[in-house]
Sequence to fold (840 residues):
Amino acid sequence: MSKRFPGVHALREVDFELRAGEVHALVGENGAGKSTLIKVATGVYRPDSGELRYLGQPASFARPLDAQLAGISTIYQEVNLIPLMSVARNLFLNREPRRFGLVDGARMRREATEILRDYGVGVNVTRPLRSLGLGAQQMVAIARAVQIDARVVVMDEPTSSLEQREVETLFEVVDRLRSAGIGIVYVSHRLDELYRICDRVTVLRDGRVVQVSAMADVDRLELVSLMLGRNAADVRRHGTTAFGTQHAAREGADATPVLRAQGLSARHRIHDVSLQVHRGEVVGLGGLLGAGRSETAKAVVGALHTESGTVEVAGTPVRRNSTPAAIRAGAVMLPEDRKSEGIIPNLSVRENIVLAALPRISRAGLVDRAKQDEIVRYFIDRLRIRASSPEQKVSELSGGNQQKVMLARWLCLNPKVLLLDEPTRGIDVGAKAEVQGVIDELAADGLAVVLISSDLEELIEGSDRVVVLKDGVQVGELTGADVTEPALLAALAAAPSAAPGQAPAQPERPPPAPEAGA
Amino acid sequence: MTTEASPRGVGFDRDRITHLLADYGVYAAIVVLVAVNTALAPHFLSVDNLRVQLFQAVPVLLVALGMALVIGTEGIDLSVGAVIALASALIPLYLGYGPWPAIGMAVLGGIASGLVGGSLVAFARVQPIVATLALMIGLRGFAVILNGATAKPVNDPTILALGLQSWLGLPAMAWLAAVAVAFVAFLVRRTTFGRQLTAIGDNRPASALAGLPVRRVLLTVYLISGVLAAFAGVLIVGHGGYADPANYGLDYELAAITAVVVGGTPLSGGKVRVLGTAAGALFMQLIEATLIQHNVKSSYEQMVEAVIIVAAVYAARGRAAR
Fold:
């Protein structure tokens, strides 16, 4: 199989070839053309020039559906299923088993249960999809893609919302697909995964192919430097994350912590979690998916209803369960789900940045445009936000730039405590380094930072201290020289499971409210 | 990067045309309609006729302005017609204290209705369509009880003047409507309230996490809608010289929604087109007038309106699909 299409706006003379039975990594920064390439291959866009060959034949897909019918399935970053329908319905959507022209519900449920068991998902298939964890939802999406007799499966960041166990299951599935002769395009920013399962790799940069080779022939640093267009030696000197080693600027331990949260409890989510962060300190929250990390952050800023506990910012108690109160006190949170909880998609970059600060930079309820422009210009420069103008719609920006807009929204409030929930998830390597660099700078300037990241390297290198959570309970803390990957894994492994009487195993993120559904 | 996000190339021109249609179609349609009418019947542009049109369009326009704000928050307010009825019932009841206290009471009725509807939506988290549907049914019943089943004449010169008098050649109520349009446009574009309203309509969970006063904004939006509907009720009483809660304001909620939609405000929230809404109200009135003038039966007229609504939503959909 070969696909050629030189000359698309975002792609210049890109050749990409996927063989049957291989797992082909497609990597590059955001904006490198990965998404465009995928969209051309799956019939969303048509190439301006060049040709697309599928199974040896020239092919042209007018619509995504044509590509699907031909056997090209895509699993997007955000799960693309129908939240309120049952799991079984979602799995068989549009190709339900029929009897007498009616949907054969019993058979559908039976088959769905069997299929999903293969993917390590043991759930009641009559439950609505949204009641499942994100990981399980993604598995349903993958199962669905494979079920439609796919010859090519495109996976766009499939593991970004999976926990380790589910990732393992996914890899098994990938292996099975490979042996069945299915070609897989695997897009991911996680190097570990690429080396683990991919056979070959194509590196894109600025719409051009800069490298095609067997995965084993290119080492990690080389790969990163190819993606960034930087010198490998340079990358080696600075490490793969942009964090400095220590933030140090910590005052004596007896000084009042900037953030002191005590005994936070929210039913079924977190139990008696306490957290202290000092000036200039980055405290990491460690734990697996569902451990209550996001919930803790949300509880601190009043976005998750807590039954008990206190939060103090710089020694002043903050009213519980009120986001505006927490923000006024100086505690702000960058939410995990940028798309549904972060950006206001149809508003401009400018309006997204000043959103939270509006009342502060307005007089008598009237917006002050000059002041806004000043703030927006400052942050666009400082965070190097790449937008065609401050008036560009924020939804048109790449993930990394959207994340910087979100950071700017909070930074222009001059917060005392910044809680970051997966600040670099789903953004490209370059933006990731920039965001990490900003976090470092902020801590050096005396901001208290709480960092949540499922990227262990980022968590370890970015944090001065790591509080380990498991099943909504605090189970350990790593300080000083103990902040290492083995120590964190040991803490997670050794941690006793939650006391009976609590119900853990809730999804890390609550199911989206109906009103948020698109 | 923008290069990744924009599927330029295929069908770009058609996209652009749909955008232009959605954004400026109403204004173009008004121009066309006026031109056609003037060609067919020269007296169409006469001052008298224009005044008649304005008298008809203004109450719907006022109600539509409030409706546009509510729709901007991804809500809907079905109670506006009933608020008109309530306002008309309150006027004869308090006219004994003089015209201004009576008008004040009518507006207070609108405020009360908005507070109830807004509280149901903002605090009790009832879906807007349900909350305001309940109000729509309940308030009309209440208004008829207040007034009795028969229409009461209203002879107060101040109130009648609001509905009938002209200032500088235009109906007084047209001036009031112009002020209302300017006020709401200013509210949406230049105040923190307006920007927060837009953000909440576009992405409510994100707005809440950004610390916006979501509930306060929602409550205020329904309150404004109630007040504008009550004003419309006062003008209708002044124009008709009667208070008739059983018949006033019927189907106004639908006329208002039509004006908002035809004006290019998406029902999905996050965007409010104030001038478009005003143009939408005028346009629907012109259509009606045109068809009546040419002796088209009202049943046909309704069908034409249906086609226009579908066309407007279709044009707006082209934009939303991007």
Q: What stands out?
A: The CA atoms of residues 57 and 285 of chain B lie 6 Å apart. The two ends of chain B are 16 Å apart (CA to CA). Chain B touches chain A at residues 1-10, 74, 190-193, 195-196, 198-199, 202-213, 270-271 (CB under 8 Å).
